[in-house]
Specification:
Length: 180
């Protein structure tokens, strides 16, 4: 059975996350395997919450920096950059011939209507439309992964709410002094 993380290691782990590193980097720095981390997160809800909050804190800090920079009209590109990444389906630059998620949905809806209209057997029409729906889900998943959709975004959003509720927490000291 893997060794449990000490409270000091948990604190250091969260400090590394608050610096902006990902979980893999924090694991490498502390000599923890991903399996150990998963077990620890599953067994210690307080630690899991602190990890989520730590990730949200650094994200919020950078969002504040972007918002502040964007207040200056000469930094209009900050707003453009943020919009492209926050809602790429609406704001990201597209290459010629690229299809948006909305366009793909409309195409599948039209195909379903055509099938329902022209395939006389209800069972066959239903089977074809269900197969198209499975294919659409597969494509959407692939497009989301390629676009960098974050499967943990809801966790970060949840933790961001926790951080907003307690922005008056005292700043934490960096447990890792600058190394020579």
């Amino acid at each position: 059975m893997p060794t449990r993380l000490s409270e000091i290691e948990k604190s250091q782990f969260c400090a590394i996350i608050r610096l902006g590193c990902d979980r893999a980097t924090a694991c490498m720095r502390l000599g923890v395997t991903p399996a150990q981390l998963r077990i620890e997160l599953a067994q210690d809800e307080a630690f899991a919450k602190n990890v989520r909050r730590s990730a949200a804190e650094i994200e919020l800090e950078h969002m504040r920096n972007l918002r502040k920079a964007g207040e200056d009209p000469k930094n209009w590109r900050v707003s453009q950059w943020w919009l492209e990444r926050r809602a790429p389906q609406r704001y990201a630059a597209r290459t010629f011939g690229a299809v948006s998620a909305e366009q793909l949905d409309a195409l599948f809806d039209q195909l379903a209507e055509i099938i329902a209209e022209h395939v006389p057997h209800v069972d066959l029409a239903t089977a074809i439309v269900e197969r198209l729906e499975r294919q659409r889900a597969s494509w959407e998943q692939a497009v989301g992964a390629a676009a960098g959709d974050d499967p943990c975004a809801s966790e970060v959003d949840e933790a961001a709410g926790e951080v907003r509720e307690s922005d008056d927490d005292p700043p934490r000291d960096d447990p890792f002094p600058h190394e020579p």
